[in-house]
Amino acid sequence: xxxxxxxxxxxxxxxxLFDYRTQFVQAARQILSAGGIAAAMPGDGDQQIPRTYNSxxxxxxxxxxxxxxxxxxxxxxxxxxxxxxxxxxxMVCVPIEEVQAAxxxxxxxxxxxxxxxxxxxxxxxxxHLEPFSATLLPNLDVQALVPIEPDERxxxxxxxxxxxxxxxxxxxxxxxxWPSL
Length: 181
Known about the structure:
Elements: H1 8-18, H2 20-34, E1 39-40, E2 53-74, E3 77-93, H3 96-101, H4 108-127, H5 129-136, E4 140-148, E5 162-173
Parallel strand pairs: 1-2
Antiparallel strand pairs: 2-3, 3-5, 4-5
């Protein structure tokens, strides 16, 4: 891979652009909160989380090889990415006492609550597709927002007191968002 020499200003611009995970999770939390759905983020302490809560996280998936663009990872390290695929996980947790009382199974009431929350979340996110690309994440375009069902993990890997809904998002970097080399 070629070596790129970047000015401190260019490095700062790359770092800001690449920090989409934190920006996206914060944006998702704001949208859910505005819709009356409280959500915890990675790093929130247990004492700040209500007993029944939603948890947001965003994991990076693969990168498309269609367009290679150098991205500064910090510390003088670089990687080439074109298109990103990520997964926003909306996790609804049920208090363990309720699960134990139900015989270690999610009850019909829990599933109804999960369905209510996830359907509300879907509507909220679909309403905010353009702000995601235009305001909240000015350097990223949301190409797709598709729910993934059911939970793909093997049965033994699932947590008894947790139900999940995942949203798959594809981002494409706008060429004019990149600092010139």
